[in-house]
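Revision sheet: structure tokens.
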Amino acid sequence: MAIKGGKQTLSDDVRARLRADILSGRLLPGYRLKFPLLSARYDVSVSVLREALVRLAEQGLVQSEPHQGFVVTPLSRETLGELTDARIELETLVLRRSVVEGDLAWESSLVAAHHTLERTPYTAQGDEDRIDDCWSDAHADFHKALLNGCANRRLLQMALGLRDEAELYRRWSQPLGDEPSRDLAGEHRTLLDAALARDPEASAQALCAHVRHTTELLLVAADRLERQLSHADAQAAGTRGD
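Predicted:
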């Protein structure tokens, strides 16, 4: 029993380290996760790695390919484009309704959620390439609070579901987006002010700009990653003598 517990603890530790390396961009989207290299990197057995990777696949961070093993979930231009388009259409609709229909309790919860977000560190302590988990939670809570005034709960849940789908892309916007001067705090303040002013059009425009900004950064990153991976594949083929 103790051995099982120890193995589970080791698997959890490796999964956490792999997750941090993926979210920070140290393991790039599309990177093939080769067991010999990972075993040396994390100093664990293949069985422990496989268990950790299966768990990460369930979370959408890696993908299993038949007869090929695992890869970090690729940064798909097509998926990102479709997801952004769907989010903007639905989230702006829900936000407009939220701003019109939200009551005083909604306003209070929105202000409180923004207060928490504003005072939560953006990047993880000791790891400036990775968005802090507490900030991600506060960010999700703020955006949920923005939409939560919508009386139609079906529309609300659909919008929140699309936001959940986009979480991995949002996490990658920090290490891969390459815009250290981005004023995220200012974007969130604009969203808050427009919502509290009960201006549905200004709120929708601010949300649209906020979502598109992240997507544009990642589309540039996708082009850069595609070139890097093509170069790496060419080098590997040359080494093999293909």
